[in-house]
Design goal:
The chain has 108 residues and is mostly helical. It has one domain (4-96). It contains 4 helices and no strands. The longest helix has 28 residues, at 67-94.
């Protein structure tokens, strides 16, 4: 069993906190960069990829290296990306255009 002091002396805690702060900052900046129809698909796709990257680098998790596993993961990544862009494009087309008195019309 590890003590709380051991937790405070490990690099993983500080790496996780720094990555979380940078991720939050980048997330908020991407929401403010333009309309949600442009930033939301990218956020939807990048979020799980960064989670895998953090799991491998910070928590020393292992990914399967077999050809079948790599092909399956790549196929699902392509499918996931296409679905995120398709769903967001569908929502953007269904949204009403902003009115002239909308104070946030310039952000869309």
């Amino acid at each position: 069993m590890h003590s709380p002091v051991a937790l405070l002396t490990r690099r993983q805690l500080y790496t996780l906190l720094a990555a979380g702060a940078v991720g939050l900052l980048l997330n908020q900046l991407s929401f403010q960069a333009g309309p949600l129809s442009a930033s939301l698909p990218a956020i939807t796709v990048v979020n799980p990829l960064l989670a895998v990257l953090l799991g491998v680098t910070v928590y020393d998790e292992n990914l399967r290296h077999t050809p079948w596993a790599i092909a399956t993961e790549a196929g699902f990544l392509v499918l996931f990306t296409a679905a995120a862009f398709a769903l967001n494009g569908h929502q953007a087309a269904a949204a009403e255009p902003p009115t002239a008195d909308d104070p946030y019309a310039h952000r869309r």
